[in-house]
Amino acid sequence: MKVLKFGGTSVGSVESILNVKKIVESQKEPVIVVVSALSGITDELIRISKQAVNGDAMYQQSFWQLATRHEQMIDTIIKDRRKHETLRAVVKDLLEELRSIYQGVYLIRDLTPKTNAAIVSYGERISSRIAATLIEGAEWYDSREFIKTEVKAGRNVLASELTANLVRETWKEIPSVSLVPGFISSDVVSGETTNLGRGGSDYTASIIAAALDASALEIWTDVDGFMTADPRVIPHAYVINELSYVEAMELCNFGAKVIYPPTIYPVCVKNIPILVKNTFNPDAPGTIIKQMVESSEKAIKGISSISGTCLITVSGLSMVGVIGVNRRIFSCLANNGISVFMVSQASSENSTSIGVRDEDADAACRVLNEEFQKEIEMGAMYEMLAEKGLATVAIVGENMKHTPGIAGKLFGTLGRNGISVIACAQGASETNISFVVEGRLLRKSLNVIHDSFFLSEYQVLNLFITGVGTVGGSLIEQIHQQKEKLMREVGVKLNVVGIASGHKAMFNREGLELANYKEQLAASADSSIQRLHDEVIGMNIFNSVFVDCTASPDVAGLYKEFLSHNIHVVAANKIAASSDYEDYRELKTIAQRRGVKFLFETNVGAGLPIIRTINDLRNSGDKILRIEAVLSGTLNFIFNKIAADVPFSETVRMAKAEGYSEPDPRIDLCGKDVMRKLVILTREAGYEINQSDVEANLFVPQQFFDGSMEDFWENLPSLDEDFEKRRQVLEAEEKRWRFVAKYEAGCASVSLQEVDKRHPFYDLEGSNNIVMLTTERYKEYPMLIQGYGAGASVTAAGVFADIMSLA
């Protein structure tokens, strides 16, 4: 035989209770069915009690609403006239009893524990009568006749041995369907109605299953089983197929509300499996809980949490080496009915931290201060220190004991996301690692752990993209095109949670739809540097990456704050990496200290792997001796196009028309962009340098940069004759012009140089870039990196590569 328990949501509506009827009547072996009160009824019974004891006459209206809900359900689901009349009469008598109790409470303004226990019992007493009438062939049993409690330390606890004997006596012969109200019980001595506590219906079912050696205990609820995490916080959490009794107990104790924790022990002792199923989706396989489970590749099975946690620290030098301090702490709390769910103690023994619920914190501090009053007055101990507003998280899995490095990975993952662990605890069984964090970081903690331990189907990176011009727009398009492929083939989900332009910005932690982002952005709120700062930091989302596709100094000024909040930064913007050396060094230091990345590969050479190669060389012990490079695609285009029939001024116009140059070509011609790139490469090569240290040898006179754009275009042809004369000489000598950036032996310069056919730079085509690195290893034959060094799509691809390197 089996025991089936149906919770409040399973019997709470017409649709759900009819599902219960189908499930029970489809069983092929005898079943004992335990039901809870209709969903919300127990809370409503308690609320009406408070109205009555406080003298609020509205309790009567609340009572009639409660009565009407039950009567309407009976009228809707019980079609047989005789059964309907019989049930209505039974329920009417129960409701009249309940009304009389409420009236008595209202008149004398007193609500004793005995009366309260009697009141809350009516939820199950009525719901079980309804279910017994609805289910064909069901026989109703009053659980108060065989579930017995006794008073110990002022609390009602199960009289285990007596109850087991009474259950066996009750079911000497087991009918096809037995219907039992859960939760309620009676006192061994007085026979008065008691209960097993909130969630006690699960416990009732477990007690009966254990006493009768049932083949299985099925818990029918409104979820498909135990989930890897709370799906309200982590939408991609999924059902765990199997759990051991220990794993299930750990998850239940730490907030997983699928099963009432005491439920597990009685059936665990008898090795009876527990199957958690969904009343609303009965075909789903659910979660099975048993002694031996199949081995899993994953080290942890699930994550559970308790919000509203308070950490109380008991400390003092007198605690060191003194036997009995912890006994006094826990005895004091137990005697005052305060439950402790986590303990953390340093090996020095001078402090013990205990986790309690926020609502118990003040009482716990008070009784502990009283317990250690003498020691506190003598200065041997300190007053209790309570830190409220925290949350406790537990990762659970029996495989952890076989997997080295789990704790290291856990705390490393949290640290990289800016989450500080306030206290932690782990038993020698290594089934559970518990830790305490600030309450505001709970959601982030759960997401990052779920993601890091591959409980998710894919890893998630949450992106904030600023700048939607040629590079930013191309990047968004590439992400949109590649998103499904990356999830399917690489197991990485790029979730764009923010997009900002110079005028508008939009944010959504669940992710933005990229197909029509331009229309959405145009209809969004105005953007500002302050809003960008507040939204990115305020979202406090895990695995977050700020992507800067602007050329804004104001946006670059946000990097320090973002890195300090453990937000990765990927920049196409050159300003930060080429700014004052101390500012650059500070950003790199913060990123290293916080365990996040500051990546700017596309600052030099667009998508070429130049910076990454320099870092790889240095990290492997090599030393960069000399850097020579052509780093301006615009200038390379100009000097490749110049010819007898294409004067210098015309090549500048062509570069602008074809999108190679800036809107103001003087920015390219002055060499400032190349100087910035040289500074960035030199710094990454390990040398301290500022832009002011670079010697600039300009090939266009200074006066061309001082006037207006109109003056520039008007006067530019005056340079054509000189350039043509020099070009002819070059052509005769079989040489070409290249604007070369160079660093060697502490000297940095940019200049227009003449290179012959033997030089690697001679055949550089179009707008390509080339970098030649001379190192201690590559001294005789320098390393060359060459390719497209400009263009929105290749730059966006380089930014994309930086983002993927984070995953």
| Oligomeric nature of the chains | single chain
Radius of gyration using CA atoms only? 37 Å
The end-to-end distance, rounded to whole angstroms, is 51 Å
Q: Please identify the structural class as seen in this structure.
A: alpha/beta
Strand content: 15-25%
Described by the principal axes of the CA atoms, the overall outline is: elongated
Helix content: 40-55%
Number of strands: 30
Helical segment tally? Answer: 29
- The side-by-side strand order for the widest beta sheet comes to 3-6-2-1-9-11-12-10
Q: Output mean pLDDT.
A: 92
What profile does the largest beta sheet have?
A: 8 strands, mixed
Q: Uncertain segments of ≥5 residues (pLDDT<50)?
A: none
Commentary on this structure:
With 807 residues, the protein is α/β, with parallel strands linked by helices. The chain is 41% helix and 22% strand. It has 29 helices and 30 strands. The strands form 5 sheets. It has an 8-stranded mixed sheet, sandwiched between helices. It has a 6-stranded antiparallel sheet with strand order 14-15-13-16-18-17. Helix 2 packs antiparallel against helix 3 (59-77), helix 2 (41-53) runs antiparallel to helix 5 and helix 22 (633-641) packs across helix 23 (648-657). The two termini are 51 Å apart. The model has no long low-confidence stretch (mean pLDDT 92).
Q: Could you give the topology of this structure?
A:
Elements: E1 2-6, H1 14-25, E2 31-35, H2 41-53, H3 59-77, H4 81-108, H5 113-134, E3 138-140, E4 148-152, E5 155-158, H6 160-170, E6 177-181, E7 184-187, E8 193-195, H7 200-211, E9 216-221, E10 242-244, H8 245-253, H9 264-269, E11 274-278, E12 287-290, E13 302-315, H10 325-335, E14 342-345, E15 351-357, H11 358-371, H12 373-378, E16 385-396, H13 406-416, E17 423-426, E18 432-438, H14 442-452, E19 459-466, H15 470-490, E20 492-500, E21 505-507, H16 517-522, H17 529-539, E22 544-548, H18 553-556, H19 559-564, E23 568-571, H20 581-594, E24 598-599, H21 610-619, E25 624-630, H22 633-641, H23 648-657, H24 666-669, H25 672-684, E26 694-697, H26 703-706, H27 709-715, H28 720-732, E27 735-744, E28 747-756, E29 768-775, E30 783-788, H29 792-806
Parallel strand pairs: 1-2, 1-9, 2-6, 3-6, 4-7, 9-11, 10-12, 19-20, 19-22, 22-23, 23-24, 26-28
Antiparallel strand pairs: 4-5, 7-8, 11-12, 13-15, 13-16, 14-15, 16-18, 17-18, 20-21, 25-27, 25-29, 27-28, 29-30
Helix pairs in contact: 2-3, 2-4, 2-5, 3-4, 4-5, 6-7, 10-11, 13-14, 15-29, 22-23
